[in-house]
Amino acid sequence: MRPDLLAVLNDIRPLQQAGAHADVVAMLSALPEAAEEPAVMAALAASLVKIGRHVEAGRIYERLSDRVEDKANAFRQLACRLFIQARAAEDMERIAIAASEAIDADLALDLCRALLAHARFAPLTGLLDRLDMTRAEQAFFKASSLKRIGRHAEAHRCLQSACLLHPGDVALSVELIASARSMMDFDSLRRFEQMMAEPMTPFAKAVFTHQAALDRLYWLDDETRQDQLSADQRRLDQIAKVAGAPLRRRISSDGKISIGYLSDEFGNFIVFDVLEPVLLAHDRERFSIRLFGYGPRKIADKRLGPLQADYVDLAGLDDRAAAARIDAEGIDILVDLKGFTRSSRLNIARLCAAPVKAVYLGYPATVPGADFDYAITDMFVTPDSARAQYREKLCRLPETQMPNRAFEPDDIQPVSRAEVGLPEGKVILGAFNAPRKMTPRLFDLWMEILRAAPEAVLWTLCRNPSARQSMLSEAARQGVDADRIFFIGDPAPHPVYLGQIALADLALDTMPYNGHSTSADILRAATPLVTMRGQSYHSRVSWALLQAVGCADLAAATERDYVRLALDLIGDADRRAGYRARLKAARAVSPLFDPQRMARHLEKAFEMMAARARQGLDPDHLDVEAEPR
Q: Is the pLDDT reported for residue 300 higher than 70?
């Protein structure tokens, strides 16, 4: 180094020691060598860091990594950490692409997190490969990140490898099972169900506290175990410890009852689709209605129509502010439509001071920890035996808990078999529920039906290419040729979708998690639906809906009966036609397709809740009487 530069560096040392870094930056920045002499560059970068100019310092360290070969990695890591600290997305992305192979596992983890926060996905591939799979937390992060950026097959393979490396890690096991459902990984699902068959093992107990409450319903049909601590409740309990519990406001002594419905996506949410006509049918002389939405307002605006005036936008508010906004409306009964489903914000409901709180429709089980007084259900999905399993009191509607639209002939657009690639001359067995509801045992039953009925083919919903291949491979293993399984195509407008359902000669329900709105759509399309009555709300829904349309005999009592009933109907076209005629007739008279009647029953329920609150009585189980027909 030139003597004059050495002298400058010696001169700035006392300034740096005295904390005069701004002076150092001014002196060094004026030198031409600040852009090319490593010692000057390093000194300048060090002082830039001290005065908070992290991005400029990081860029200097990044250039130093190209000039000082033996310290290249150290300089790159310094630059990365400064960019992360400064949240400099473009700089992070650039250095990650250029230098991912030189970044160690810990820094790669930090950089991935920062890039994900900025939705910068391009450099993630190289960075994720730098993570250390022998460390369970890094393996978990890698799989979750791959899933987030849409690389589901890679995420699944990552989880499979991670579980082999960390067989006792419950978090990884739970994540693998969630992935296995979407990928139709039958081997992983079977191993999981075998391990969970013994509920008191340490592994099984740990799974319950790590698994999302909704995910357990896909495999569990034991109502006595559904209120056990879940990952969702743990999170809610942790929030409650910090936030405390609200004091409930007293309900008004008379006048209109103010009802508030709480959800994340009014206007673009399946619950809203079935509930909308009931909301429109509410008696506004006796009830004040508010829709509290914490999802994107632009989505709500597309569909709310006449309900726009009732909508209160909570988007952008934290839980406490959202609860305060609801309380400002003077809500008497707050009705959460989500429960333990994805994207729910139950802490909003928990923090509200509404005199009465209820959970309805979105989640078919108890919701402990959210401070709900009532679960709105019906007598079929929650018979008397279910009361002991609910933290809430049951408020049971008389005919069905499922709201729906009235039937209109234009609901269904005719579709031909040729349009969807189905063969003529075959009995079409339609399986219209999401693949996550399909268990290996259920698939075994379907394959048994196909083996016994060569005239039938299965038409099932599965849009994931890897999952489709897995299903075909499993079918072949069980002696069913691939040409007997057809897959439902891309999503279609609802009238076309109902027309597709109507093409099926027979629909096969999933167990233990039945179709809910899907089963209602199947009955709207007048397609006979074979189900099995289970032991829990979520496994009784289709049976309850069949009750509402006068076809309860399509619900089997056991797996053997399910197979036998399906085979009997496959072989008896006249019997299938009889059920279709009964279902067509039911569309005009069934309470399932009568939103006005459902609104009156819900209103009776609200009046009963309010009456107890006005009398100062604690919530209790309520059964609503049916309106005269």
A: no
